[in-house]
Each structure stands twice: as C-alpha cells, then as structure tokens.
User: What shape does this take?
Amino acid sequence: MVKASVLKLSPPNQAITVRPARMEDLDRLLQIENLSFATDRFSRRTFRYLLTRANAATLVAEVEGKIIGYAMVLFHRGTFLARLYSLAVDPACRSLGAGSRLIEAAERLALAHNCVTLRLEVRQDNASAIRLYQQHGYKPQETIPDYYEDHMDALRMEKFLAPHLKPSLVRVPYYQQTLDFTCGPAALMMAMKTLDPSLALDRKLELRIWRESTTVFMTSGHGGCGPYGLALSAWRRGFNVEVYVNDPGALFITSVRDPEKREVMRLVQEDLLEELQFLPIHLEYRALGVEELSEKFDRGGIPVVLISSYRIYGEKFPHWVVMTGHDSSFVYLHDPYVDEEAGKTQTDCTNLPILKQDFERMARYGKTGQKAVLILSNPIGAIAPLALT
Assistant: This one.
C-alpha cells in the first residue's frame, strides 16, 4: 500500500541523490515513517524484514547526506509486476521534489527487474499524492473500500512501463478465493461475472460451485476442482463452454498415493464425463497453445486455465487462473489466491503479466504435464465483455 505523504511537486532547490537503502538507515527510515503517517505505519521489524529478506528493494533520497525520504518496491515472483509498496518524505522536506525523484527511481528499478507494470495504492483522501502520481502517468484503476486502518478507501493506480506492447485487456472483476481448495470456483466466477455483470459473487456461490466440481481428494485435505465439473457448473448457469484437455485419463491422480482415494477420483471424473457427453459442451482432447488461446480471447471467450503454482509460489499444486489479456510478449492473468502472510494484496494478483514462453511452461501440472483450459462465452446475442482502453 502506498501511504504517500508528499504534499506537492516543487522544483528542487537542493541537489537530491537517490541510492539503495542500507541497514544502518533503519533508524532514520523509522523516523520518517512515524513523522509521515498517523496509521498503517511500518514497524522496525517490518522494515528490517523488507530490507533483508523480502523480495523487495528500498530506495532513499538524500540531501547533503541526510535521508529525507524513501520508496519501497515489491516484486512478484514468476511475474513481471512490481508494486510501489510505500513512499514517504519527511514533512519538513516536502517542497524539494524528493517524491518525484523517488517515483522516477522506482520506475527505473522496476524496469531493471524486467517489470512492465508498476502499481500502487494511495489513500483516496490524499488529493495531492494522487495528483503527483497522475503527473507521472499513473492511471486510476479502481477503489478499494475500507483499505486502511482508519477505514479510509484506497485508490489503486497503475503505470505501464512498456507502452510499446499495447496490451489487449478485458475488464475482469476480481474475486479472491476464500479457501485453499477453491481456486477453480473463484476463477470460474471471475470469468462468468465478466460475461454477465449481474451475477453476484459471494462465498455461497463459491462453495456451491466447489461442491458441484470437486475431485473429492487431492494430495492432502479437501479436493480441488477439475475441468469437467467446472464446465458443468458454467453450463448450468447459462454459459457456452469449450473444454480442452490433453490427457483423457483421470486428472491429478498421480499426486495421490492412496489407491482408494485414486479410485474415488477416477469414478468422480467418469461420472462427470458421462453427464458432459449428453450436453452441448464442446470437448477436445488436445492442448491449447498460447496463440490459439489469445485468438479465442480476442473473439470474446474468457479462458480459465489450469497451471502449476510452482513458478509463482514455489510449491507444486494445481491452480486455476483466469486470463484477462495479452500482447506480443505477455499473457495477463487474475490469480484468485492472495498470499496475505507474505504481505500480498489483490493488487499483486490482478492482471499479472507472464511472459508467453513462461506461461507455456506454467500451464501444465504434474509429471505427465496435464493441461486443461475452459473457454467461457455467452450465448449468441448476449452482451460482449467490456474491453479496457
């Protein structure tokens, strides 16, 4: 969350230099933090973690060797997204232009990490900070209600650092999964909401779709959802569905050791397939590549894709995401899982830019490389999804 405290943009009258923060800067960083914010302050422990262990970088602005402000940038593993997590300037030095220098340095840092998008959140009542970001090319995306400790809303803003790519994006509403095993329902709900804005997204629907689609078992705990059950759930709610699976065998079974659990999973999938074959749901046993996926997206389809979470989270489990756009280099995704323990927010999980070649490797699961994609679309005559400009 950017807790920016910069009051205005003024021509600097003293030389400002920007450098990476060091551990010996900790006391001064904490002092600036406490001078700048009444709520949502970073603790000494948080600063120490972000300076030493987090996937983050902190920059400080100096005048005559004295630190007058800082900017903190977070990077998202496996993606080309950066987040301007916090920006603060000593209230006594806010007329020197340090805020602008830090923003510009943060953008250069993001580009040096091959990030194409820099995002931030700012208090909705901080008009001067919002104006400063707009002067630097940041565009408002959406309002996040009750974001700060004092219940103030946040404005999410974003700047695309590689404008030559010109991504084709669709406005896909975001829904965060509420349980470890409901990524499939959450991704499906986002796709359905895109096509039908009147659809209400809530936990009741999330759990209902999970009950309809679950594989019963997974590697441990409750079962996730397979493509056939998700396709049936979407069809029952009035959507056209195409299913592409590269392996006609039972999905996810290789990750389950117990033979009885594997047999139950096989029977569940067999039952779902028997129901599927009597319905107007298109099913093909073949892989769908990135280019064909993009073509279907451009024709109004919303892809829901099975991936391995390893490249993003470092753990090997099947995970469903929804495609929100593409350009010549990247595929963009909404990820329904928000790793709050790692300090992530929904900002870190929306329109994630993934290199196409990385996505090709990511969009498979298990030792056998199982692939599954659903393409949702509305019946003929229905309203098309809203494209972003």
